[in-house]
Amino acid sequence: MPIKKLFNQAATLSASLLFFCSCSRKEEAVIFVTARLEGRISAEPEPSLKGSRTGGIAVFKNLYKGESRPKLALDMGNWLSETSEGHIMGAQAVLDCMDAVPYSAASPGYNDLAFPTRELEKLAKTASFPLLASNLYLKSSNKKPDFLRSFAILETGGRKIGVFAITVADPHKANQPKNLLNYRLEKESYEIEKALKALKDGGAKITVMLLNINPKTAAKPEFYRKFLEKLPRTDLIITDEPSLKKPFKSGKSWVVPSGRGPRVARICLYLEPDTGAITSIDWNLLALDKARYGEDPDALAVVNRHLHSVTRYMGRRLGFLSTDLPLRDGVKSPVGDFTAACMKRWARSNAALLVNSDLAAGLSSGPVTVGDIHKVMPYDTSVVFVKIRGAELAEALEDKLLSDISVSGLRIIDGENGIKSVETDYGPLVPGRVYHLAVPDSIVNNKDYPILPNAMEFANSKRLLREILGWCFSLRKVSNPKNTGTKGTE
Question: In angstroms, how far is the first alpha carbon of the chain from the final one?
């Protein structure tokens, strides 16, 4: 064979191989996403995994640093827990632990928008990563908070990935402004268009939306399709809504679930080398199994520092009880009667009442600690001062929703067909007289309870019922305050 012909064939073969390799080669980038940590910064037993300890920032960091491909770590907020420990640690502890990874960016969840402006600003300024909230405005000024960012352009593996965050208060009423206590959520479509334009102008080749959904609502797949159909394309939409179980494609956009609690979503993006466009994705939901991944020692040190602080605080002694106060003793709640007496004494009111279902545990005789009080009332409940006329109070007490209550300062006698009589410490309830009550805010906030529509006025003391119980123990004069109220038959 002539040398020239042989050379041409070799050149053709080489070019073909190069063409094949360039077509088959795909670049990859991995995005890890957590959400709704809710104060869970350490590994805890997981019943669904036969008691294996899962979750925690230290476990996640070990998994994250073991990933060799270009990567990002994102979080979708809802940092506070409904547990006592979560309330005590606060969101700052969660973000401190996240800094130890460190995360690339995060967005406050819907529940985090209950934070006062100053608290959210402190979180944003102390975090080493940007906090994103694209459609969030200050209610007082109708301006975007300068301590939050509408978007961020993150770089990994030489690729610019643009990330922004949208919060939806109600999927059934999407694209409508929503006023919250301290903030205002603007129409999502307007802010999405602004964020995408800014990201494109900034050179982002891939766009990612963190779509936070109010945990008290649910969104079906149809919501995402309808929500996205009239918007400019976002390459990847990540949602923290738990009813979405697996990824799907809506038009040219991928919609994928985040991880939640002790699980993390690992999203592998397969990219076209020349354009950086996403050609396909691979999604996995991984349990943060401590036995499998281990714990990063540096992150664990940060986690343990916060846990030890909580342990010390919960162990503080408040006082001493001479007798047990169980949650239930027949139809009565001794710990409820004790709490009502404390409320009345602290508020200097004519009476106090609370719904026994607000209480979670009793108190044992002996030393009483902060942790014991938190077990009685694991949720934040403040005391509200209520002014109500005697006739309206008697009418409210007739309601079946207030049938299981503890009272102080009132003697409620049940008859065959309802309440037979109501007496105060100073005699029968007078219909036209105005009485001062102390009640938990749960009674006022729940529209089904009859106190609110019947009251003349009310004011929140902004003092937690747990704090008032602590105050009661701190008096040291009486270990069991006298309860002058009863409810029952003669």
Answer: 118
| More confidently predicted of 451 and 364 | 364
pLDDT in tens, 381-402: 899 999 999 999 988 888 877 7
Q: Using 50, 70 and 90 to split pLDDT, how confident is the model at 20? A: very low
Task: Please report the pLDDT score of residue 63 as a whole number.
Answer: 98
Alpha carbons 127 and 100: distance in angstroms, whole number: 10
Q: What is the DSSP letter of 444?
A: H
**In this structure, are residues 139 and 108 in contact, taking their beta carbons and an 8 Å threshold?**
no
The angle formed by the CA atoms of residues 221, 104 and 295, to the nearest 5 degrees, is 95
Q: Are 149 and 130 in contact (CB under 8 A)?
A: yes
Q: What is the dihedral of CA 334, 340, 341, 345, to 10 degrees?
A: 160
Contact 76, 212 (CB under 8 A): yes
- Put the strands of the sheet holding 351-355 in their side by side order: 405-408, 351-355, 434-440, 382-389, 457-464
Domain 24-311 and domain 315-488 have a common topology: no
Give the integer Cα–Cα distance in Å for 61 and 41: 12
**Containing H/E element for 178?**
strand 178-179
Homologous superfamily (CATH) of 315-488 is 5'-Nucleotidase, C-terminal domain (3.90.780.10)
Task: Classify domain 24-311 at the CATH class level.
Answer: alpha beta
Entry pTM:
0.79
User: How far, in Å, are 46, 132, 242 from residue 261 at the CA level?
Assistant: 11, 20, 11
For residues 194 and 190, give the distance between their C-alpha atoms in angstroms, rounded to a whole number: 6
pLDDT for the residue numbered 90: 82
> H or E stretch including 14?
helix 3-24
Rounded to whole angstroms, how far apart are CA atoms 401 and 383? 19
Cβ–Cβ < 8 Å for 34, 75: yes
* Distances, alpha carbon 355 to alpha carbons 276, 375, 387, 453, in Å: 59, 16, 18, 17
Q: Where are the beta strands (DSSP E) in 288-365?
A: 317-321, 351-355
User: Measured on CA atoms in the order 340, 344, 345, 346, is the torsion positive or negative?
Assistant: positive
Q: Is the peptide bond before 108 cis (omega within 30 degrees of 0)?
A: no
Give the start-to-end residue ranges of the domains of the chain.
24-311, 315-488
Give the up-direction half-sphere exposure of residue 428: CA atoms within 13 A in the CB hemisphere.
6
Please tell me the distance from the alpha carbon of residue 391 to that of residue 113, in angstroms, as a whole number.
40
